[in-house]
Structures are given as structure tokens and as C-alpha cells.
Amino acid sequence: MKKLINSVADVVAESVAGFAAAHADIVRAEFDPMFVVRADAPVAGKVGLVSGGGSGHEPLHIGYVGAGMLDAAVPGAVFTSPPPDPILAATRAVDGGAGVLHIVKNYTGDVLNFETAAELAEMEGLTVRAVTVNDDVAVEDSLYTAGRRGVAGTVLVEKIAGAAAERGDDLDGVAAVAQHVIDNVRTMGVALRACTVPHAGRPSFDLGEDEIEIGIGIHGEPGRHRVPMAGADAITDQLLDAVVADLRVRAGERVLLLVNGMGGTPESELYIVYGHARRRLEDIGVVVERSLVGNFITSLEMQGVSLTLLRLDDGLTALWDAPVHTAALRRGR
Amino acid sequence: MKKLINSVADVVAESVAGFAAAHADIVRAEFDPMFVVRADAPVAGKVGLVSGGGSGHEPLHIGYVGAGMLDAAVPGAVFTSPPPDPILAATRAVDGGAGVLHIVKNYTGDVLNFETAAELAEMEGLTVRAVTVNDDVAVEDSLYTAGRRGVAGTVLVEKIAGAAAERGDDLDGVAAVAQHVIDNVRTMGVALRACTVPHAGRPSFDLGEDEIEIGIGIHGEPGRHRVPMAGADAITDQLLDAVVADLRVRAGERVLLLVNGMGGTPESELYIVYGHARRRLEDIGVVVERSLVGNFITSLEMQGVSLTLLRLDDGLTALWDAPVHTAALRRGR
């Protein structure tokens, strides 16, 4: 296994420590238990936003901690849900008196551990609400999930809910905005090559040299089907058609188009996918009003891409455009 | 070959078209000949900055076109210098009457083609100066280079010279700032796994499963030596020791520490490298005043990392901190 790591046991803690040192103007890290929090947390009177999940998807979630997005992120072991204890500690750390929203990707372990942490927090007198992101149209139920998985749409939920919290919406309002994003966002991905989880030491699945997996999960869990390698346009069509059909996007509607790299995909290839998807959308009369192209939720060094559409309205677009200052996403100010 | 492309011949043009569509608020692309230019170019009275080189290193250079950085970038074929014609066209397009600075990475083809373009531009009455970036301490001369290669330091030259041009420095002034960065920046990289150039169809070099190459070039050209795979700290030490020795950084000095991923390296690993390098620098009394961690100059999907130090002074730090608005680097405003 060729990885720039020292020991399998220390991967996440060493990485989080490096991250916090590099971005000390934005965040600080706690290690007992481990979470990353805005340097100025808690922000009095503001709803606190906490997300988290298995590591290996960077920059998600720690890269999105900062003004206008998350107040804290809880990294678990690689591809492993964080336990309730650090989620509880992060919840306490961001409570500014206006309540805390948990943004949870829909994996069974994440959902359970965030629920437990929320119950413990409520017993301490905190007010906690949760939303569950389930944007992956590829499959119902999966290795680690009842219902649909939460994938790249999570980035958009975190940005837009973060903007709502920053402008002063109350807990119900921020939760409603987050749910509105969830209701209008859909994603599907494809893998060309698997990644290797450090504690496994070998690729998480095998794909033939002329084979790709459509609908791959972000942990390499099975998608819809394996098909022969094809050109970028044909692969993009398969992702886009599934997302458009599920979201029921129609002519005249406006969308945010997110093309996300899974970690080992050259940026040039992401823009080829983006270009074709955009043309296809324009052909059916859909307006690509906002775009995001790059590595935003990865699976270590997996080669592949996911395509996400968020149906926009004036309110969502304004929140998307609001200033944000995190390690991985910056806009305005 | 598993790549998200349609045909080998169209990789760069399709990717640039997608890039320009995604970032139409910042850039526009020309295709005959091909270059990417600020949407508001030429900026009257401002020195124009043009860079370019072989594609496959994205976001370099097209991702750095925008306010506060480059005015235009000229992408060649993958790992192939662009010919003089598009460089000349880009030079014309950014001339706002204050002259144009070419920022050239030190590869023989790039240097020759930029020189030819500059001569042609001068014959048309434009004023052109050039600086050559040669920050790679790994080797003197190489497959494509007389002298040292230009690598990740180029990103810092482009940012800081771009800030100098934006504040209104004249052509001599901007060139002097760029040269000051070049004089104070050094880089060394390591590869764990090669990338595959589309028109070659196979990995550009072979490394054993337990072997890495120290001092790798950004086109996979040979570095200093191949050594057995080691832990991240030990690998980081080899890069850092070489850079510190060559730059002669001393206790009390301030630096910018850039840890750059080569395209296929998980972000978590970059932060492990960063964390160790920072501690080592602090141990010898060097102040890490600014940091940059991520994929800034890649080699397609190569797995590896480079480490760059820029010796800072008040002037350079202020220019580094100045607002920038490009696809790949944003700060302020």
C-alpha cells in the first residue's frame, strides 16, 4: 500500500492536526474527543451547524467549517461513522443559545450516532434538530444505508443552510432551508478505479480494465450496474439522465450543476463532463444558473465523478451566493 | 486507458470549453488559436500577465486567470508546450497599454516558444518582458530542461506578480516582483504512482509497488533517485531538507509553506505532510507565516506531493494577501 501516512492508526488525527495548523485563522481542532470547530465558536445568537461522518471524503466535512457554512465537523475513522461522544462535544461547542442543527448523511451508523448525540444534548438542555441528506438516486438501500445515500448534495446543504444561519434565521428556519435543499437535490456517480482504505490495505473493490461502475457509493459500495468503459459524453449521459428523471427537472427551470471529482480524477476530465452535461441541460431548456466543478466530496484517491443538480429558486440562489469563508470554499468578503 | 475523455485529440479543447462555460463570470476562451483570458481584458493601464504551458497540470494555468492574478493563460496539448501563435494572440488580448509580462516555466520548449511570441509581439509594437521560473531543486538539467525546472513555485509567482500588477506597478516593477519571488522560492516533489498521458495510453514511468521517486518532475521525468517506500514523515524530511538547504532558510525567517498534491493524492495525506513539515520548520526556528495545501499544479492523476518554501518579507506577504478572484484561488472581496 503506497500512501503518504505514518501509521494506519494515526491517519485521521495527524491529518486533522495538519489541517488545523494550516487554517488556524478559521478553525481549531479538539482531540479528546476529536472535532473541528470554528475558531470563533460559539457564535452568540446564531444557530450552530454540525456535520460529520467517516473520514476519507475531504474536504467534506472539515473543509467546510467557517463563517457562512458549518460551525463544527466531526471526522470519524476512514469510512467509519464517528461515535456519539465527539458529536455531543461538537454540539456543545457550537451552541450559541439559538439551538443546533445536525446535518447527517444517510448512512445507518451516522444516523444512529447523531441521534444518540442529539438525545444526550437534549438531556443537557440543548435544543437540537437534524436533517438527513439522501440525494443519491442510484440505489434504494445499500451496504450501509436504509433508503438513499447522502453524497455530494451534502456540500450544497451545508453551504446554503450555513448562509441561512449566518443571516440570523432561527432553528426551525435553518432546518426548513436545509430540508428545502434536500428536497431539490439529486446526485449520481460513476467509478473508474477503486481507492484503498488504509486499514484494509487493498482496493475496496475490483473493476476490470475495461469496466466502470455506474451509481457507485462514496465508500465503494455497489451502485446500479457495471458497464464497459465508454466515452465521457456517454458516461455523462447515464448520470445526467438518471438525475434529471428523478428530480423531474423541466424546461425553464434553473439549476446549480455540480460536477464532483472523487479524488483521483484529473480536473481536466471534470470539465469535459461539465461541458457536456451543461450542453445537454441547455438542449432541454434548463438554465444552468450556478456551477461548481472540483473535488468537494471525495473517496480518498478513487477515480470517478459524480453529477449533482440542485433546482434553484431566488431564495436558494441568494443563499448560495452569500459570503463563505472556509478552507475549501470561499466566496465574497 | 480509463479516462473521462471522448477522444485523445479533443481532450484539451473540450476541457477548456467546459472550464470557460463554468466560469464565464471570470474568463472567456478563444479557440483559434486557443487561450483563456480575463472576461474584462484588456484592463487599460494595467500590466498584462500571460503564462501557459502544457496542459495536464490543472488548475495551472487557466485556473489562475482573473482579477489579481493572470490576465491570460495559454494551454498547450497535454505535457506539450503551446506554440508561439496562441501566446502571441494572448499577449495582444491582454495589452492594456502598460506592457505584458510573460511568466514562463523553465522547459526548453516553453522558453523558446514564449521568446518567439515575445519577438513577434515586439515587432507589432508591444512591450513584453519575461521571467523564467526554475524553483525545482531536484536536478540541474532534465529531459526537457536546461537548468532547473519550473514547478509549484509558479503558482506563487503568478499570484504575487498578479497582485503587483493589480495595484498598478509598472512593467519593470511587476517583473522585479516576479523575479524576487523566483529568487526566494524552492520546491521538491516525490511520486508514488505515475499518471497516464492520453496520447500515450500507458503510465509515463514504472515504479515498483514498494518504490517511490524523489525529485520527480511534473511530467514524470526523472528526479534524484528511487528509494523504498517509507512513512510520510521520512518522505517529507527528504523533500524539506533539500529545499531548506538550497534556499538557506535560517532561524527567525518567515516562509510560505505550500504542500501541493499532484492530482491523485488524497487531501488527508497532504495535511499529514504539511503538519510534519511545519513542525520541522518550527523546530529550527522558521516561522510559517502563510500556508497553502491542495492541488495547485498537478500531473493529471499522478500520486505524489511537492513541498515548496517561499521566503517572505512584508512586501511579499502583503501581495500574497491581496484579493484574488480566479476559478482556483480566491481571497477577499
Keywords:
2 domains; 26% strand; 6-stranded mixed beta sheet; Hypothetical Protein Tm841, Chain: A,domain 3; 8 helices; 32% helix; homodimer; 15 strands; 333 residues; Rossmann fold; alpha/beta
Widest beta sheet: strand line-up of chain A: 1-2-5-3-6-7
Structural class of chain A: alpha/beta
Helical coverage of chain A, percent range: 25-40%
CATH-level-4 superfamily name of the largest domain in chain A: Dihydroxyacetone kinase, domain 1
Largest sheet of chain A: 6 strands, mixed
Looking at the chains present, what oligomeric state does this protein adopt? homodimer
- The gross shape of chain A turns out to be globular
Distance from N terminus to C terminus of chain A (CA atoms, Å) equals: 42 Å
Per DSSP, the total helix count of chain A is 8
Order of helices and strands of chain A: HEEEEEHEHEHHEEEHEHEEHEE
List unreliable stretches of 5+ residues of chain A: none
Number of strands of chain A: 15
Radius of gyration of chain A, whole Å: 19 Å
Number of domains of chain A: 2
**CATH architecture type of the largest domain in chain A:** 3-Layer(aba) Sandwich
> What's the rounded overall pLDDT mean of chain A?
97
Looking at the structure, the CATH topology of the largest domain in chain A is Rossmann fold
Strand content of the residues of chain A, in percent?
25-35%
CATH secondary-structure class of the largest domain in chain A: Alpha Beta
Biggest interface and which pair forms it?
Answer: A-B, 59 and 59 residues
